[in-house]
Fold:
Amino acid sequence: MSDANSELTPLWEVFIRPRTGLAHSHVGSVHAADEVMALQAARDVYTRRGEGVSIWVVPSASITASDPAQRDENFEPAASKIYRHPSFYDIPDDVGHM
Amino acid sequence: MYSQGLIGADGRTAEDQDFLNRFQARIDDEQKIEPNDPMPEGYRRTLVRQIGQHAHSEIVGMLPEGNWITRAPSLRRKASLLAKVQDEGGHGLYLYSAAETLGVSREQMTEELLTGKAKYSSIFNYPTLSWADIGTIGWLVDGAAIMNQIPLCRCSYGPYARAMIRICKEESFHQRQGYEIVMKLAQGSPEQKAMAQESLDRFWQPVLMMFGPPDSESQNTDQSTRWKIKRFTNDELRQKFVDATVPQAEFLGLTIPDPDLKWNEDKQGFDFGPIDWDEFWRVVKGKGPMNRQRVEARQKAWDDGAWVREAALAHAEKRRAMAAE
Structure:
């Protein structure tokens, strides 16, 4: 490629709020030189059919992610702690809805 | 696109058997593989190839249709066609971003398209000679694409599967707008109907080729099927497409240009005549009617856009410097 600069066009992660009352969720990414163009590109690419009412763009490089190799040590402990769930406790039917 | 995306894919992989077994167990358990998960190099390379070629197909696919935007016969048709072509661009971007999660850069993929190292669907190397071709492309090319893409929504690689779900939702509009165009022509004057028939005659075989080489010649199917990148074989999808399309053509009063086409009661599907695979390989290898123009158009877009990319980066840099002062 003759255009060495383009190697530097940053990547942005795009989050969209589908409608008020719902959280923004991740939909994909776009390349853009700055945050203004990233927002415009995200609007064009990800909201052509009323998918959202609000967009966040975040530089991909700013995201810190957990390591998939540590998935078990991070999340496995929760699996054995079934007493954290309401269904662990026996309540007689006569008590009614609780 | 799609089944052709595996052409040139290299599934060879060098990991130890223990690692491969653990990976295969996750796949067999229908777990999705996500970007930073450990994966065999052959899996990663196969997906980069397939997703990249799929993305290129979407982008190059804008060209044959873009050819008719300024000559659409009404404002309604023009608005639909603009929206469709814009969707194809969007689909390309979803797919490039899915491929980038595998550690390949956009620039690298663009370069591979422009140098011919990466392919795109053979169908886009055919010209759009009449307005009817815009209808035929929506009806048949997008119809074939949907047939191919629906199973990809369950592909084992998460980002690819998610991109495909978005794409499939949007693709249905493409097929319906195409069918509507062909229907208007088929129900119009004798000249209009002839135009629709002539377009179908030209596109039928190339559309069947979209599903890729026959299973007997397709080396990549086995490994890709085991890794659940691919869920149906090329011939299975081609058969499903023919079975779905024949009644649609009958409804229009158009004739599918295949003297061997007939219903087979035993297999509950249509038998159809041989496909010219020599033509297919000629087109894949660069000798189709429009290969040169397609790549030239992409090269021109890349070159003409260089100053825009550079200016945008320079502007961003200047704003950062001013904010830092």
